[in-house]
Specification:
Elements: E1 5-8, E2 12-18, E3 21-29, H1 33-46, E4 52-59, E5 65-69, H2 79-88, E6 94-101, H3 108-126, E7 129-142, H4 147-154, E8 160-166, E9 170-176, H5 181-191, E10 197-209
Antiparallel strand pairs: 1-7, 2-3, 3-6, 4-5, 4-6, 7-9, 7-10, 8-9
Helix pairs in contact: 2-3
Length: 219
């Protein structure tokens, strides 16, 4: 059974200057710890001249694996605040890296915590975050006289038609939310006086827009 989750649709980065230090927050979709580690290694090579490359990741849906690192910053001032941002936004299958170029002004533990969390929060606000929502894949076979009723019914519903084919009968492949499946089945059965054949073909994720929760910013 698939479980809904939110993640970046594609890699994203945002740069922020805080007290002369440059913070570059990166968000990358990943599907495994190995993929996250490989992407992190790539950032460390790309920004090898940076003062720090701190990170946090969350991976999985039924059981979420979490890891973070401060990369030389005082313990708990970078990786953990970044992980907290991902948790608050309920993001998973994501790697977050915040690259810092030190600008000469020390921020202190509290300032570092706010800087890393706000850098990542601002990136999350602007990143292409989507919600991957499980949908049931159904194949509906109905007589031709039911096609008009089908087309009228699906307007404004959660149904996403994947394919339509017409032979001796009309065959509609579509996706719908699991909680709506029974209602759709009842309608199509009634529409065709019991002549509808409905086959379940599994589940698929559908990308849906997701609103971002408000986050406080750094001082």
């Amino acid at each position: 059974m698939l479980i809904a989750y939110a993640a970046p649709a594609e890699p994203f980065h945002r740069e922020l200057e805080i007290k002369k230090s440059i913070f570059i927050a990166h968000l990358v979709p990943v599907s495994s710890e190995e993929e996250a580690q490989e992407a992190l290694s790539g950032f460390r090579k790309q920004y090898k001249d940076a003062t720090h490359n701190c990170y946090a990741w969350r991976i999985g849906t039924t059981r979420i694996l979490e890891k973070s690192g401060d990369d030389g910053e005082p313990q708990g001032t970078a990786g953990h605040p970044m992980l907290h941002v991902l948790q608050m936004q309920e993001l998973t299958n994501v790697l977050a890296v915040v690259t810092r170029y030190f600008g000469g002004i020390k921020l202190g533990a509290g300032g570092l915590t706010r800087a890393y969390s706000s850098s990542l929060s601002e990136a999350v606000k602007e990143a292409p975050i989507v919600r991957y929502t499980p949908h049931v894949h159904l194949r509906l076979t109905i007589p031709y006289n039911g096609v008009g009723g089908f087309e009228n019914y699906i307007k404004g519903t959660d149904i996403i038609v994947k394919d339509r084919s017409f032979t001796d009968k009309a065959v509609m492949d579509f996706l719908c939310l699991p909680e709506k499946e029974d209602a759709h089945r009842r309608f199509f059965t009634d529409l065709t006086a019991g002549k509808a054949d409905i086959e379940e073909l599994g589940e698929e994720y559908v990308k849906m827009e997701r609103k971002i929760r408000s986050q406080g910013s750094a001082d």
